[in-house]
Amino acid sequence: MQKNGGRWYGVLSLALLVAAATFAASGAVAADRVRIAAQKTGTLAWELDVLKAHGLDRQADIAIETTELASTEAGKIALESGSVDLMLSDWLWVTRERALGDDVVFFPYSSALGAVMVPAYAPIGGIADLKGKKLAVAGGPLDKSWLLLQALARRSGIDLKTEANVVYGAPPLLQQKALQGETDATLTFWNFCAELEGAGMRRAVAMDDVVKSLGAVGPVAMVGYVFNGKWAAHNRSLLDRFFAVTKEAKDILANSPDEWQRLAPRVAANGEGALDVYRQRYLEGIPRRPLDAEIADARTLYKVLADIGGADLVGQARELDPGTFYTPGSTE
C-alpha cells in the first residue's frame, strides 16, 4: 500500500505541476487587468489595436479590457462609477473634479490640437481676419480651444464673440457645412481638421501657435490618461508597464507607414491623402517633453482659461491643483 500510495502521490504531483505550467503559460496567472474606456473612432482605440496586434500586452503581462463608448462624457461616467480604470480626458476636468473632492489624476497622452480651417482660396490668414465672418465652433461656448482663441484675440483688442458671426455645432456636422461652403471658417478638433486638410482646406490659425502665444513654452498635452489616484497607488507596476507598451505602440505608428495602411479601415479617413495628414498630425501630437515642462505650461494655460471661462468652466478651482498630474512612482 505504501508503494502504491507513493506511486500515486508521484503521479498526482506530476499532474499538478503540468496543470500549473499550462495555466501559467496561458497568461491567466501573470496578467494584470486594466479596464479602459475608449471611443471607437479615437486614437486610443488605434493604439490599443496596434498594441494587441504586436502582442505588446502579452509581453508586459497585461490583460486589457476595452469598453467602447460614444463620447468623453460617457467615459467620465464610467470612470466615476468604477466600471473602468482609465480613460482619456483633460487636466482642466481633472482639476475641477479634484476641487470637488474626487481623487482623479492625469498623465499626458497627446498634444495634438485643432485649428481654424478655411477654404484654400479664402482671404483669411489670422485672427483679425475672422471679424465679420461666419465662424463655426465645434463643441460649444465652453470648448477649450474656443476660449483660448478668444483670449488671444482679446490681447489684440478683438472680441470674437461679438465681432464674428459665431455658430456652434457637433464636429461631424460642422465638417459637412465647411465642405459645402456654408461657413467662412471652422474651429474644430484635430482629427476633423485632418479630414478638411485632406479635402483641400488649410489651417488659418493653428491652436498650437495660439497656446504658445498665450505663454506656453512648447506643445501642451491637454489630453491625457485619467484614473483614480488611490487605484494608481496600488497599481504602480501595472501603470508603468502600460505606459511603456503604449509608448511602444506610438513608436510603431511613428515609424511604420504600413501600420497605417493596416489601420486605414479603423481610421476611416476620407479623401485622397487624408490618411497621410492623419499620420502627420498624430505624430506631431506625441508628447516628448519632460513632465515638469508639461505641468508648467498647463498651469499657465489654466489661468487663462479660468479667467475667460469663469466658474462655469473651472468651478471653484481658480488655479491648477498641485496634485493634478500623476508622477510615476508616487501616489499622485
* CATH 2nd-level architecture of the largest domain: 3-Layer(aba) Sandwich
Question: What's the number of helices?
Answer: 15
Number of strands: 10
Shape: globular
Number of domains: 3
CATH class of the largest domain: Alpha Beta
How big a fraction of the residues is strand? 15-25%
Mean pLDDT: 88
- Estimated helix fraction: 40-55%
Characterize the structure shown:
- The chain folds into 3 domains: 1-30; 33-111 and 219-283 and 291-314, Periplasmic binding protein-like II (D-Maltodextrin-Binding Protein, domain 2), CATH 3.40.190; 115-213, Periplasmic binding protein-like II (D-Maltodextrin-Binding Protein, domain 2, 3-Layer(aba) Sandwich).
- Helices cover 51% and strands 17% of the residues.
- The chain has helices spanning 2-25, 43-53, 56-59, 72-81, 91-99, 144-154, 160-163, 171-179, 190-198, 207-213, 229-234, 236-255, 257-267, 274-284, 291-314; strands at 32-39, 62-69, 86-90, 104-110, 115-118, 134-138, 165-169, 185-188, 202-206, 223-228.
- The strands form 3 sheets. It has a 5-stranded mixed beta sheet with strand order 7-6-8-5-9. It has a 3-stranded antiparallel beta sheet with strand order 3-10-4. A two-stranded parallel ribbon has the order 1-2.
- α6 (144-154) packs across α10.
- The longest helix has 24 residues, at 2-25.
